[in-house]
Amino acid sequence: MISDPQVLDFITKTEASYPADANGASAADNRRFYDAMCAAFRATRPPGLAVLDRTVGGVPCRVYGEASAVTVVYIHGGGFVVGGLDSHDDVCAEIADATGLQVVSVDYRLAPEHRWPAQIQDVLAVWDALDTPGVVVGDSAGGMLAASLCLARQGGRQPLGQVLIYPGLGGGGNAPSYEQNAEAPLLRRSDLGGYRTALHGEGPITDPLAQPLQATDLSGLAPAFIVTADVDPLRDDGADYARRLTEAGGIAAWRNEAELPHGYLRARRMSDRARRSFLAITAAISRLAATGKAG
Predict the structure, then answer these.
(1) Averages of pLDDT over each 10 residues, the chain, 295 residues
(2) pTM listed for this prediction
(3) Active site includes 230?
(4) Which residues pair with 63 in a beta bridge?
(5) Are the CB atoms for 146 and 75 separated by under 8 Å?
(6) pLDDT tens per residue, range 89-121
(7) Which of 87, 140, 177, 277 is catalytic?
(8) Is 53 a catalytic residue?
(9) Which of 90, 232, 236, 237 is catalytic?
């Protein structure tokens, strides 16, 4: 499945601090493993970049860069259970530096202490508090929350664009990637079930904001740039969502990254493939902020 030596080195380095069974551990232990792994990859911020922790709409946030005409709202991944302002600090700093746009990173509440819809409520509170146009960006669980934000504000104030990075969008597990990549490195199909239970409990999911692919109407949503990892059970969620948006009359560009696994943003400094993908992501953010064009 993966032969690129740079990517294989990234997987080895990841698993050294975040073992394969970490997703099955308690939330506290999972967070301990995850924080250690993120620290192992964390890069220093670009010099001279202003960074401030502040509350936006009642939600803790970290703001990167000076005020700009368009704001980037970043929503971190982590299965709704792990992650926070520190886990994606370097990613947000580099987006601000690359685009020249102010980035607001959202520290939404985590499961299982806070179950759905606490997460989207926090994201919407931040979005509604901003007084500038914005591009919403999210990876993994954050990608779902970015899509959910657009769906929640259907017919209202939409972002200029949505950038979804290997998102899980509620595809239901029927797409081929769930079977083909059931035992993929860094995210297995079984891990998804554990995260679902932490977020929703054992009952059925009925809120379309919690699984945007199950929404019946995707019209009028922000232009989307969707990037997926080919070796990822969630791969086909991104492809299917791009198709659904286009069928609904929207604009969507989909990019699939060969030989890359879920979570590859952290590999951008050790993998040429991941670096090129990150450059494409920052270019898409800039393009959407300036023109509203996804591709």
Answers:
(1) 96 94 89 96 97 98 98 98 98 98 98 98 98 98 98 98 98 89 96 94 93 97 98 98 98 98 98 98 98 83
(2) 0.97
(3) no
(4) 52, 104
(5) yes
(6) 999 999 999 999 999 999 999 999 999 999 999
(7) 140
(8) no
(9) 232
Residue 134 tokens, joined: 């914005």
Q: Using alpha carbons, select from 160, 150, 148, 167 the residue that is nearest to residue 71.
A: 160
CB 145 within 8 A of CB 217: no
Instruction: Note the pLDDT tens digit of each residue in 170-195.
Output: 997 789 999 999 999 999 999 999 99
Query: Residues 148, 262, 271, 286: which is the catalytic one?
Result: 262
If we measure between CA atoms, which residue out of 222, 213, 217 comes closest to residue 294?
222
Residue 258's φ and ψ, nearest 5 degrees, are: -60, 140
- DSSP assignment of the chain: ----HHHHHHHHHHHHHS-TTGGGS-HHHHHHHHHHHHHHHPPPPPTT--EEEEEETTEEEEEESS--SSEEEEE--STTTS--TTTTHHHHHHHHHHH--EEEEE----TTTS-TTHHHHHHHHHHHH--S-EEEEEETHHHHHHHHHHHHTTTS---SEEEEES-----TT-SHHHHHTTT-TT--HHHHHHHHHHHHTTSPP--GGG-GGG-S--TTPPPEEEEEEEESTTHHHHHHHHHHHHHTT--EEEEEEEEEETTGGGGTTT-HHHHHHHHHHHHHHHHHHHH----
Question: According to the model, what pLDDT value does residue 292 have?
Answer: 81
190 is catalytic: no
pLDDT given at position 20: 83
Tokens coding 104: 């607001």
